[in-house]
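Q: what sequence does this backbone want?
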């Protein structure tokens, strides 16, 4: 059975709530991000994906998490400042979440998609179709410019 995130409600950076279904019609890449991780450099690649595919109906959605090695200890304003200043990242960042253990949304739902299971580390990625269905999951070591990821984004945009 396909997992769909359309009914998932998440907390925005400004403390409000957003239903992920409000973004249906867009292809989304949900990523648990951290500012002090060996994969933090992926912010640059994620921003490039946003710039390349954003005009076609794509968005990166960043969910900071401090679950892995305490690598995202900052406040949300500090995280936003770091991402903007260091990587020029302007894709949406949401409130800090738990991606493992006592998971919070969107991870309570995302980790039910095949292959099901907890997020293993920072910068794990979930590709979401225009209708809210989880299409694919990519481990942290899959770079944002990897052909398997960009090809899947292009296919989802064309669907």
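A:
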């Amino acid at each position: 059975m396909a997992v769909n995130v359309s009914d998932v409600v998440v907390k925005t950076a400004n403390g409000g709530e957003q239903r992920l279904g409000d973004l249906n019609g867009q292809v989304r890449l949900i990523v648990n991000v951290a500012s002090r991780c060996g994969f933090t450099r992926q912010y640059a690649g994620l921003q490039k994906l946003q710039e390349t595919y954003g005009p076609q109906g794509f968005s990166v959605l960043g969910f900071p998490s401090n679950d892995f090695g305490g690598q995202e200890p900052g406040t949300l304003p500090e995280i936003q400042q770091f991402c903007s200043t260091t990587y020029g990242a302007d894709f949406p960042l949401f409130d800090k979440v738990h991606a493992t253990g006592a998971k919070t949304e969107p991870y309570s739902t995302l980790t039910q998609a095949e292959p099901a299971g907890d997020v293993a580390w920072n910068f794990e990625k979930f590709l979401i179709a225009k209708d809210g269905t989880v299409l694919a999951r990519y481990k942290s070591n899959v770079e944002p410019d990897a052909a398997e990821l960009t090809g899947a984004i292009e296919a989802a945009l064309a669907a």
